[in-house]
Structures are given as structure tokens and as C-alpha cells.
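On to my pick:
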Amino acid sequence: MQQPIISFAIPTYNRSAKLARLLKLLYAQLGSVETGAVEVIISNNCSTDDTSTVMEAYAVYGVRSFHQGTNLGLDGNLRFLYEQARGQYVWFFGDDDILLPGALVKVIQALNAVRPDVLLFSFAQPPGKTEPSFDTPGAITVIKDVRKTIDLVLKCTKISIYVIAKQHAKASLSPAVPVNTNYDFVVLALSALQRSECPTLCILREQLASCDDEYCIVRYDPVCATSMWKVAEHPFAQQHYPELMRLLKEKCQREFIGYMLTFRDGRLTGHPEFAEAYQAAIGQLTFQQRFRHDTRALLRGLFVRLGLIRLKRATLIRIRGMKRYRQDRLQRWDEAETTLTAVRSLVRSAKGRLVSYIHALRPRHIAWHIRRRLYPSTPVITRLGHKGELNIRIYPNGDISEAIYQDGVFEANEVELVTTLLEPGMVFVDAGANLGQYTLLGAHKVGNSGHVHGFEPSARVFKELEYNVALNGLADVCTLNNIAVSDKIGIARLSQYPPGAEGYGSLGNAHWAAEPLIGFAEVATITLDSYCRENGVPRVDLIKMDIEGCELPALRGAEQLLKGPESPAIVLEMADQNTVGFDYKAMETWEYLEALGYRFYTFGRRGRTIEPTVRPLDFSDSQNLLAVRPPVRPSWQNLFRNCWWSVEPLPAGFKQFEKNCQFSPIYEKGSAGF
């Protein structure tokens, strides 16, 4: 088996949303590199959020996932990832950082061309920063001058910028060298250079990674000071750049004294290594050095020399007390968190009951139930749409009619999404039009310059659809068809249900609806491709498809339309219970569209928030999804502003990469992380 060039190692802890974002960015770039060149490994450091769910969703793409049973700490997690890595280089990447477009290809190209011991690149922090971290003269700079190499390695200490040859990194990740802060990655890089016969550093000037808006402003603390001391004591740096290490040591000494004198009531974190390092620093301190670098430190030094023994005892006592204080505080916090979780659950439950009570007292809710009980067969004309700009005739039965009567629309999120996507002049196909909610709203949005093609196979419901279109004067904008869309032209059986439940009618053989089945009716079927040819429809911009499990046959019958240069966006329902009667799984619909280049999105409240989604494990629960084949239409770019990494076409070779992925993820107990 070919050895990967890079092991992309992600230690993670309680950042499920940020991990999902990173994996989406990485997933979009893997198709641009040679198959097998990159392996992705993730170690979940005993997270308590949805991290495991995110990892399982990506396991089908060959991501190697490990779930730790106990928290190993950052250093333990990194050691675990290193041991699991199979690549020639290990690229540790923070789960809260952002991989910028093209980064993976550029790093691999540089590694193949230079074969360095350490590779660094510019990091954009804060987000939007345009100046590169490394202002080197060329896009790729190879440095073999040892002093210059040390100087550049010390310049930036972000975990995600270090790509280190694995054969040189092992000793630096031994348990005896704890990795506590980003300074330890400097130690890691220095050790890799030290173990090389010809130390080589490669610098990429371009910014290849960034952080998000929640980036941390790093402040020094005793842990940072001890890590800086470790860098200053590194034999490779001491041998080749002693004067720089001497200045770094003096800075550490000043930090040590400052922390010792400002340690009050456990407000600053102590560290087991701190007292020993402090004593070493004080022993090497001279008054001349202190006065030259920091006058305030001179006064602190005088105080320390006058009360050294008493201060040492007090400090050790405070460090031990701090440990007990932190343990007690964590225990109290766990108890408070348990109580708070219970309170939140009660509040959510009470809020849900209150909302249901308020909803039950709404006048239209009461009026609906009166009509349903006293006049179940008498139609009523009511408003349609959030603004009530249209009218629709409904009968007081069924969930769809009830939602329209009380709230103006049925499935508010889907309605808002469809009306947001549609614009004047567009062509809209409503497959499974039912009473005509989407047909009417779509016709209202596309206007006289656009057109709506509605398909409803049920004869009784089709009459209501015709009536509602005529009621709103939209007959010139709509072409209505009493026919079902499928993968062939012919005749099929449509299951029939009582009034109000006609929406459950299906061409399948299984019938899962709670309503009683009252019979079957023969209906004509047609493919969307043949319909468009026969009726001179040059393009379709949007398809709404709610046809109770017949989605895959209908999409196969529209293959030419979906492969065209102006392929339509698709809003569809996917559920395994609907597809049972057609002898296929809803996942096959996903795979069919994905093979045509479509990508899937979820949409939030009112349909105005669109987010990329990954392949679920199954569709045991019904999901309404938006499928779009990149590139998206220019007028939709603003709607997809949060999906900038997924609206461009898939890179060449992506399908081959996906085909060759390992589909048997490895799960082991254990974890580490940030």
C-alpha cells in the first residue's frame, strides 16, 4: 500500500461545530490531490458534545476516527496521533482553525519539490489579515542557513502551520516532554532540524490557514514561560544561536519573577515545573542584566533576594493549595452544571406546553376545529402566504389545510426557501402540486416573464389545483398536468386515501400512512426529459419534488435536464419509509444526485439560512434538503454566503478519490485534544 505524503492529524475536544467546518473545508480539497496522498486522522479527546456524530458522518470518506475513553491532554493526544500517523509528514491542525482554499495542493507540491525537514506557511490572524506571517522574497523559499532557520521557526507559534517530517519528530513527542503550549511546537521543529544531516526549512509565503472570529489573543502565563525556557535550553538552538537563546532566557527570567510576585489567592495558575525553573532563573540573574532590561524587575529582584526563603515556602504552599482549589472548583462546577441541565430541561418543557396552550387559544385555531367538526365537507377560501397575497380553497380536514388556514402556509421553512430562490423570469416545476400551495406562490414570484409547470396525478386533487390557479388569475403563468412524473412514459397505480389525506398517495407498492387505504386509480406517467422536449421547455431553474418515494425514478427520468449546463436546483424530501414501496433506499437518491455533481444543503428557520451537509448514516427520519449543482446562479450567491467553500464545482479527480476511499473506519477507545 502506498505511503501517504501527509498525515493530516486533528486533535479535537468539545468543538463539534468547528470540527465539522474544518472537515467540510478539507473534504472540498481532497479531490484536488493524488489518491492516497493524504490520510486524515482525528482523535476525539473524550468530548461531551456532538463531536462523535460529526466524526461518524465523515468516516465513510476514509477518515480514520479514534474516540478516547479518558482525556489524554493535548500532549497525550498529539503523541497518540503521531503513533497512528502513516504519512511521510505529520501536519497537526487545530480543530478551530480554517484551511484556506488550495492549501492542501500547495503544501504537497512544496513537500514533493523540496523534501524539507520542516515546512511553515503564513497564517492569517486575526481573520482577514492580508500581510503574510513570513515576508520571504519568493512564494517558496528554501533555507539551509541554520541561524536563519532558527530565527524563522521562533517567529510564529501556531500549531496549524507546522508540517514536520515524521522520521525526525518521534523523540520530540516522548512522554518526558509534555506539550502544553504552542512553544512546544517550536521545540518539535527544532528537534526535527537537529536530527537531520542537512537541516532544511521550507517557507510558503502565502496564507494557507486562518482562524475564525473567536480567535484568542494569547497572553503569557507561567506555563508559557516554562515552555519558552524549554526553547531557550534546546541544544540545537544553544549550539547554533547562543546569543538569541541568552536573550530569550533573560525574558523568561523576568516573566518568572513577575509571576512569583503577582501570585495572589490562587488567581494565577501555578505549574509543577515552575518553582524549579524559578530557582534556576534567580541563580543566573545579575543586577546589571535586570537594570538593563527592566527597571521594575530590578526592584522585584531586590525584594526576592531579601525574602527568598520565605517567598519560596509561601509559593510552594500556594501551588499545592491551588491544586486543591481547582479540584474543588471543578467539582462544584460539575454539580452546578448537572443542576443547570435539569433546570434547562424543565424550562424547555414548560415553554413547550405554554406555546401549545397559547396556540390552542388562537381564534383561527378555534375556528378551524369548529369548521372541522360541524362542516367537514364545506370548502373555505382562505389567505395563502405569510403576507396573505394569494387565496386558496381548502377543506377543513388534513394537516396541510389546517396549517394553511392557521399559519398561511404549510412547511414554512420550505415555502420560504422556494420563494427566496425563485425570481421573475424563472421556470419552476412543482412535482406533487397537491392543492397548489407551491404552484401559486411560485407563479406569483416568477411573474408573467416566468412559468410554472405543475404535476398532480390525483384526479380529485387536480380539480382543486385548477380551481385555485383560476381563483388567483394565474392560468397564463401555470401549465397544469394531471399526470405523475416517473422514469418512464406509461400507466401506473396511484394509491387513494380519504379526503384530507390525498397527499399520501403514492405509486409504490407499500403503504405506510396512518390513514386507511381506500383503493387505487390508474394514472398516466411521464418523464421530465420527454415533457420538456415535447413542450419546448429549454431550461428549468428549480424543482420542488414531494412525490412520496418516487423521487429517484423521477430524477432518473430527468437525467438530461440535470446534466445540462443550466441544471436546476432541487428541493426534495428524503425518507426511507417513503421509498420502501419502490424497493430502494433514500440514500440511493443522494448517491445518484451526488454522481451528477450535486451537493446537499440544509436550511434553517424561514429557509433563509443555508448550510452544507454531509451524508447521513441513513434516512430513517425524514429530511427536506436542497440539492444544487455548482456553480450556483449569480443571484443566489448572497443566499449561499455561509457556504463559500462548497458552491464551486468539485475538483477534477474527486470522484476517483471518493471511489478509492476506505469505507471501513477504525474506532478505538482513547482521546486527546485542545
